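Anyone opening a protein record will find just a pair of labelled lines. A complete record is shown below as an example.
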Amino acid sequence: MIPKSHPRYESLMTREKIIDGVKRGITSMQGLIAEGRGEAFDYLMGEKTTKTALEAEKVAASLLLLAGRPVISVNGNAAALVPDELIKLGEAVNAPLEVNLFHRTEGRVNMIIEHLRSRGARSIYTKSDAFIPGIEHERAKVDSDGIFNADVVLVPLEDGDRCKALADMGKRVIAIDLNPLSRTARTAHITVVDNVMRAVPNITGFALDMKLSEKEALQKTVREFDNSENLARSIDELTAHLRSIRK
């Protein structure tokens, strides 16, 4: 048992969720490494949602609300860390979920689908009858009605080559990635440089607040967003945090 008084309580509980996901077969062993890398960047960012991240989360919500066929991609780490939050976001923006894995087995895919359904997910794409062009590994397998046909795809956590392939298909990609230097961050149309456990509820909150907004206002929010500037500001915030610690 980890006492809530422990100074690293939230971080340790996140690790426990990933470990539990591995034990249950939801998360791959490689997901442990990915979590550690993300935690390191979160530490460098001050373990908080920055002003820049919050602005990107608002833009992400706007784009999801504007989308005609949005889909939320779910991998093993996301399923372990934020299943309830992803379901709530999907309901808020009318975006079904779809499981997509690099270390894919049909058993693991079905296990994650059942895990999401047990948490209350009602809208999940479950087929693997189409392939993303340009990808030669298991992430290429998608649902023809889901990711393959989507106009906007939310990709929580790093996924560089598929992010680029989706963009090459003409889709708008929203990435949640704590590493502002990654291929994913630099390939996505909107990159939220924030911990997925903070980012997803924030995007949902913005979506619920803006659900009745005029289409033109949402379009303006998306149109004025510059992802290169967003990433540059995120790096500035990271270095500013490090400088503040040095003092």
